[in-house]
Design a protein that fits this description.
Two copies of one chain form a homodimer. Chain A is of the alpha/beta class. Chain A has a domain of about 170 residues: Carbamate kinase (3-Layer(aba) Sandwich), CATH 3.40.1160. Chain A contains twelve helices and 20 strands. In chain A, the strands form five sheets. The first copy, chain A, has an eight-stranded mixed beta sheet, sandwiched between helices. In chain A, strands 13-18-20-19 form a four-stranded antiparallel beta sheet, with helices on both faces. In chain A, β11 and β12 form a beta hairpin. In chain A, α9 runs antiparallel to α10 and α11 crosses α12. Chain A is globular, with a radius of gyration of 24 Å. Chains A and B meet through α1, α2 and α3 of A and α1, α2 and α3 of B.
Chain lengths: ~400, ~400
């Protein structure tokens, strides 16, 4: 008898009819003997409706009362889902975050889970009840309502699975799994049966927006097996798990594309210690996140320094860089918004040499020029001209034999 | 420095604009130095919206999950009002029923308050904060969310006032006080400055639907001074308090009219002990509430037995009565839905004789025939033909000098 935690997002519970469809799915699993905890989000649109009310009162909404307001969204869903289960003869009980008790720190609007007391939930599971838990919310030590920030329901599900030592945490979404690459670009992209936490983290942060990064980190830390499935069609989905649970790791699991970045270069700065922090310090101070960083030293003893930022931050970063360029007597500042970052991800590259050169050669064969390179243990990323986005992804998808 | 509990109903907080108007009222009282607790209902329409969602799932909605669902309505209002106060520079903090801790019994949908722990609320008041409390809700001993049933926010306000030993509990509504009679019938009806709990209870149960009966009973039991005021215009309202707080009690405080009842008579039943319970037992067993009861013994040793029920229950009660009439070999069953009950209410009648005969004479002078009479310590009620409703009320309002 397995203990399964399922999580359904806002779209999956967006109407009463969809909540009833979720109840049917839960009923089936419960009838097969699984002990079930179901974590749900607010009905889609509800959080925005509540935010709209708050914004009529204050332009800037935050703090304690925002969490009191937003947490009602999930509370409505848990009550309706528990009713829908009871209407189908499935004994069920709803729990708010505070009732579970999901203890968080005191950081309203973006709280972190500290501890989960599963005593009452376990008692209900032992009594054969389905336990329906409000995602996204908890309480601090003083009993104030907190929320985990947008997307926090995934984290609630993983944390519940960890606290209850569940066999699997199933995240139901509007896609049927994690793909080798974006199927809109590569038509024979393949759904992955299994993928490691590390690969999923690289894929998620690179633009495969299936799961919240934080929930994958959490799952990895507590060794919770995560499964991504579709709410709307049957299928096995993709299991995200530890490397030891994957018999034979693929060389490369996926190719990702990110078109949200822009590139900035400051040319001819003095090549001396501390130059990187002189340049990046003011950028970080302006709350601009920097992704890739490359520094080249020229023959004349001066250096060129290139980095990428989110496109929305491009103009702001460019302004800061021009000011610094003046101070450092740099030769010039150059910028380019029309770039794309293509990455190959796979734990297999840890034990196989030559992946990078295969990647570079495949791109060169298509006359795609590489502007920047960055590598990690299980990922190689290159920046290319944006117009080569699709061609680059397709080329690498074929090169590493990922097609279905 | 007074401690004031204010309560605003659903209409008074029906839109964000109205919530902001409430915030202005509270800000003014707070600036004058009052310690403030504000109890609010769900925004008007919200409870029905939530019930509508639930009814799509189950025709019959009740039980634990209904309270989880409905309690979100007030939770939205407390968050918005606390935000609106903070936006005006008034420090405020919201409390759900569970956070206060308003401990209730376990009767979902119609729970009764057992105990209020005011520790946290008092600490916030001491710190100069306005405390905003969700009406209508509490928690049972196991931490399950309960609701007090419709109109329960008045009870929450009175209970908070009792627990905190407040100086006054102010109930803001859409009327500006309690009137000597319905102003739609008598144009010079007068707003009462003060009225006793007992009179208010008689007025409320007789059709003056300003306050929930239960909240008046609660106020009477704990000697909480209640004030009914308008949310929409300034004015002193009506104070509902103990008899000893009213210097000179009026002979009659008000005239009420109830057109919701119907009359049933069973003629010629044996005049023997136990006959009343033989007749009314089956009626009560069918969950039909009986109001006035009159029994007359005729010269032939048989009796006529008359009582009133709510008009909605008339046909059901008539059916039961016909069955009993057969068993008792009664002469006939008669019914009349076109009746009205007119009552005069006043604690002054305790110490003044002759009120009843003045009432009957005034009605007789207008040729209004009295069909039934019933009296209590501070009330005399008569049943008349419905067509005399307005004339009867106006006649008695003038007779007892109630005009403004």
């Amino acid at each position: 008898m397995s203990l399964i935690v399922q999580k359904y997002g806002g779209t999956s519970v967006g109407t009463v009819e969809r909540i009833e469809a979720v109840a049917e799915k839960v009923k089936t699993a419960h009838a097969e003997g699984d002990r079930m905890v179901v974590v749900v989000s607010a009905m889609s649109g509800e959080t925005d409706r509540l935010l709209g009310l708050a914004r009529k009162i204050r332009k800037q909404v935050d703090g304690r009362e925002l969490d009191v307001l937003l947490s009602t969204g999930e509370q409505v869903t848990i009550a309706l889902l528990a009713m829908a289960l009871e209407a189908r003869g499935v004994p069920a009980r709803s729990y708010t975050g505070g009732q579970v008790r999901i203890l968080t720190d005191e950081a309203y609007n973006k709280a972190r889970i500290l501890e989960i007391d599963g005593t009452n939930v376990r008692a209900d599971l032992d009594a054969g009840r389905v336990v329906v838990v409000a995602g996204f919310q908890g309480v601090d030590g003083a009993g104030n309502i907190t929320t985990l920030g947008r997307g926090g329901s995934d984290t609630t599900a993983v944390a519940m699975a960890a606290a209850l030592d569940a066999d699997e945490c199933q995240i139901y979404t509007d896609v049927d799994g994690v793909y080798t690459t974006d199927p809109r670009i590569v038509h024979d992209a393949r759904r992955l049966d299994r993928i490691t936490y590390e690969e999923m983290l690289e894929m998620a942060s690179l633009g495969a927006k299936v799961l919240q990064i934080r929930s994958v980190e959490f799952a990895s830390k507590y060794k919770v097996s995560l499964r991504v499935l579709s709410s709307f069609e049957d299928g096995p989905g993709t299991l995200i798990t530890s490397e030891e649970n994957i018999m034979e790791a693929a060389l490369i699991s996926g190719v990702t594309l990110n078109r949200d970045e822009a590139k900035l270069t400051i040319l001819g700065v003095p090549d001396r210690p501390g130059i990187a922090s002189t340049i990046l310090g003011p950028v970080a101070a302006a709350n601009i996140e920097v992704d890739m960083i490359v520094q080249n030293v020229g023959a004349d003893g001066s250096a060129d320094f290139t980095f990428t930022v989110n496109r929305n931050d491009f103009e702001k970063a460019e302004g800061i860089l021009k000011r610094i360029a003046g101070e450092l007597k740099a030769r010039a500042v150059e910028g380019d918004k029309k770039i794309a970052k293509i990455s190959v991800v796979g734990v297999g590259m840890r034990s196989h040499a030559g992946i990078a050169s295969r990647m570079f050669k495949a791109l060169a064969d298509e006359n795609i020029n590489i502007q920047m390179i960055s590598t990690s243990e299980i990922k190689i990323s290159v920046v290319v001209d944006e117009k080569y986005s699709e061609l680059g992804v397709r080329t690498l998808h074929t090169e590493f034999g990922l097609a279905g």
